[in-house]
Automatic annotation (TrEMBL):
PANTHER family linked to this entry: GAF DOMAIN-CONTAINING PROTEIN, SLR1143 PROTEIN
InterPro entries membership: GAF, GAF-like_dom_sf, HisK_dim/P_sf, PAS, PAS-like_dom_sf, PAS_4
GAF domain sequence ranges: 20-163
Name of the molecule in the record: PAS domain S-box-containing protein
Length: 388
């Protein structure tokens, strides 16, 4: 026999029975009562402290009994039919309240309900208020009908489990379906190109952006099963095959491609080849994600052109404009050093000197500002390239 903890778990499986099964159990209880010619018969489940009547006749409306005060406590400890001809003469049962007092039960016979996994979860039993004996046919009837009782109970539990599993599966299916719809909506609405490529370079999935791109650039229709090299830029065939091969070997590849540079549809793409693995970790396909980075590239080129212009301006300002100013400052110093000239003491001379120095300071400031701007744009360009 199984241990008590496992037995209680088995009992709990059968505590809730459908109404239709209860009616069938009552039919079997009435049948065994007639066969054995007794006033009381019942089907019960026995947990850790109570005996629960699932079908009964002659119990006066009672639905349960304390396990320790029942005959069935002994029945579930064995595998065969337990027959007690006169309980008042049996030391195991003589002091039970239902024997020593009303209803003064004398006779008991019961068979354990043993599940397919060996747990005695309850009994089918008959009782009478007078001592009696059963014929072999009656004992066999109790044994056979007890198996029918258990079959009904297990069938009911199996049906309940199937219904519950079906409900859970339907619920999970709806959740998965909702998730797939949301994912598909995001997938289809993305402006980026998304492709899923199999190990034979066949197209397994694609989004609307990919379909539009292939149609606009190559005048071809992409379909599930299409070979990737037949719907892609022929100039990148070798490189494309190499990147997919690396991805199928587990490597993530990132590249930037200038597509059709001499055509009106010229554009820059940032393409990522990423391996897709199954539950066992084996790479089964490659996800290709391509983003149009033409705007970023043009922005970067524009900044580079502006940077070059600023550098030229800084050079002109630093050398070409400051050269005559430096000459003027040198002449002023020479005049001031020549004592034979009185220009140094002239108020006009001082005004000229101040103006030249002010011009020199402004040119220096412009050169410094140009150099700072060049330095800042030089720092921005790598960030833009990284964003691409």
């Amino acid at each position: 026999m199984s241990n008590e903890t496992e037995r209680i778990d088995a009992v709990n499986r059968f505590k809730t029975l459908d109404a239709g099964i209860n009616n069938d159990l009552n039919d079997l209880v009435n049948l065994i009562a007639s066969i054995c010619n007794v006033p009381v018969a019942l089907v019960s489940l026995i947990d850790d402290d109570m005996q629960w009547f699932k079908a009964a006749i002659g119990t006066g409306g009672l639905t349960c009994n304390e396990r320790d005060l029942s005959f069935c406590q002994e029945t579930i400890q064995q595998s065969d039919v337990l027959v007690v001809k006169d309980a008042t003469q049996d030391s195991r049962f003589a002091k039970l309240p239902i024997v020593a007092g009303p209803p003064n039960i004398k006779f008991y016979a019961g068979a354990p309900l043993i599940t397919f996994d060996g747990h005695a979860v309850g009994t089918l039993c008959v009782l009478d208020v007078k001592p009696m004996e059963l014929t072999p046919m009656q004992v066999n009837a109790i044994k056979v009908l007890s198996k029918q009782v258990l079959t009904l109970i297990e069938l009911n539990w199996s049906m309940q489990s199937l219904v519950e599993q079906s409900f859970t599966a339907q619920k999970q299916s709806r959740v998965i379906e909702d998730s797939e719809l949301k994912l598909k909506a995001v997938f289809e609405s993305s402006k980026d190109i998304h492709l899923l490529i199999g190990r034979k370079m066949e197209v397994l999935a694609f989004n609307k952006a990919a379909q539009t791109y292939v149609k606009d650039h190559y005048q071809k229709d992409i379909r599930i099963g299409s070979h990737l090299l037949n719907i892609s830029n022929q100039a990148f065939t070798d490189e494309l095959s190499e990147h997919i091969s690396k991805a199928l070997n587990g490597e993530v590849v990132n590249v930037e491609w200038l597509i059709a540079p001499e055509s009106p549809t010229s554009c820059w793409l940032s393409v990522r080849f990423e391996p897709v693995s199954n539950d066992n970790g084996a790479v089964t396909s490659v996800a290709i994600n391509a983003t149009d980075i033409t705007t970023q590239k043009l922005h970067t080129e524009q900044i580079e052109l502006q940077n070059a212009a600023l550098q030229r301006i800084a050079t002109i300002q630093s050398h070409e404009l400051r050269k005559p100013v430096a000459s003027l400052l040198g002449l002023i110093d020479l005049v001031k050093m020549d004592d034979s000239l009185n220009y140094a003491h002239s108020p006009y001379f001082s005004h000229i000197e101040a103006s030249v120095k002010e011009l020199d300071a402004k040119i220096r400031g412009i050169v410094h500002e140009s150099e700072s701007t060049v330095e800042q744009t030089t720092q921005i360009i790598p960030e833009l390239k990284g964003a691409c």
